[in-house]
Amino acid sequence: MGIKKYDLIIVGGGVLGTFHAYHAIKSGLKVAIVEKNSQPQGATVRNFGQVVPSGMNTKWQNYGRESLDIYKNIQSQFDISIRQNGTIYIASNEEEVQLIEELYQINKANGYKSELVNKEFCLNKYAGLRSDYCKAGLFFPEEVTVEPRVMINKLHAFLKNEHNLEIITNQTIIHADETNNGVKVITALGYEFLTEKLIICNGNDFKSLYPEIFNNSDLVVSKLQMLQTKSQGNYKLDGSILTGLSIRRYEAFEECASWKQIKAKEEASSFEKKYGIHILFKQATDGSVILGDSHEYAVAKNIDDLGFDLNMDIDNFMINEAKKIIDLPTYEIQNRWFGMYSQCKNSDIFQHNVSDNIHIVTGIGGKGMTGSAGFAKNNIATIINKNTNIITNE
Fold first, then answer.
1. Are 277 and 293 in contact (CB under 8 A)?
2. What are the residue boundaries of the structural domains of the chain, listed by start?
């Protein structure tokens, strides 16, 4: 029996790799994903579970808006846990009100639907929202939430059943070489495959393939802590709720005229600054509420410095801040975890061409769940067409 051959092999079955596979299949290619675990276990399943183009700069908002259309189209054919329940940013003071008013005008100019809503609207729509916290809100009705621990596996099932995607699990590719017949890849278990092109969407696995490239890159890894309450019973909280600290952190607001002036007034040594904390709420389908999150950083070659422990001071700070915002029936925590994602210091995504047919695409940062589907559509077209205009980090 000969070596199995594909038009494209994707290394990594997370959301970025999977949507590269999706768009390649739609272009008529024979595609396989090689996933080192039995199912994805990285940032794709350890995130907050929101698709929020509203939080991104104009370039990535466009990718995110395209992603929304892709998610909704797939959901119309196969349940991958997408719920269109909107995103709201809650302003807690006049500075944050100014920022959401400015972002509203930016989105109006960009043709992206948003609605400025007053305090009364917010208090009526979001049960338990504290009157002494909320001043106003900016609502994005088109945005969706997902169940991250469910979505990627359902998406894989859809692509296998409906589009003949092959997913090879529990295999780590440790070697790749260009040959006269294509790219030959070898797994740690000794399996060999042949492909015309190889795309490496490896999240923060910087040790299996081309470690020297990652060690010499500007990639950093971010560790995020999140919490999950016990079920809230009959209490309902629709959509994603992002708060004042989110307004002060998300890159979309950097395009606002008053951003720099407002940021300059912030206390640089505060606990929330040190750990990159902003407060988000999202109710899961089991009635629990997900709270997050924080950010700690290490360069790619020092990823182990981030450790595997949870910082309880961060968790306690997030819970105390959340209680100032929404009175939930219970803040009893049933689950705590952290996720890690990679991003670049000096660019918005890491792309490196190892050769004409071996491409590294990673470091999408916190944009993965929102931006991957739209970005991958454009990037696959570029790679398939052998367009040389790919931005590379050498």
1. yes
2. 1-83+145-208+347-394, 87-141+219-344
Spatial contact of 342 and 366, defined as CB atoms under 8 Å apart: no
Answer whether residue 1 shows pLDDT above 60: no
The confidence score (pLDDT) of residue 386 equals 54
The token duo for 370 is: 């929102």
44-71: per-residue pLDDT in tens?
999 999 999 999 999 999 999 999 999 9
CATH of range 1-83+145-208+347-394; options 3.50.50.60, 1.10.10.10, 1.20.1060.10, 3.40.640.10 = 3.50.50.60
Question: How far is residue 103's CA from residue 262's CA, in Å, rounded to a whole number?
Answer: 14
Cβ neighbour number for residue 394 with a 10 Å cutoff: 7
3-state secondary structure the chain: CCCEEEEEEEECCCHHHHHHHHHHHHCCCCEEEECCCCCCCCHHHCCCCEECHHHCCHHHHHHHHHHHHHHHHHHHHCCCCCECCCEEEEECCHHHHHHHHHHHHHHHHHCCCCEEEEHHHHHHHCCCECCCCCCEEEEECCCEECCHHHHHHHHHHHHHHHHCCEEECCCCEEEEEEECCEEEEEECCCCEEEEEEEEECCCCCCCCCCHHHHHCCCEEEEEEEEEEECCCCCCCCCCEEECHHHHCCCHHHHHCCCHHHHHHCCCCCCHHHHCCCCCEEEECCCCCEEEECCCEEEEHHHHHHHCCCCCHHHHHHHHHHHHCCECCCCCCEEEEEEEEEEEECCCCCEEEEEECCEEEEECEHHHHHHHHHHHHHHHHHHHHCCCCCCCCCC
At 389, is the pLDDT very low, low, confident or very high (cuts 50, 70, 90)?
A: very low
The hierarchical CATH code for the domain 87-141+219-344 is: 3.30.9.10
Q: Residue 172: what pLDDT? A: 96
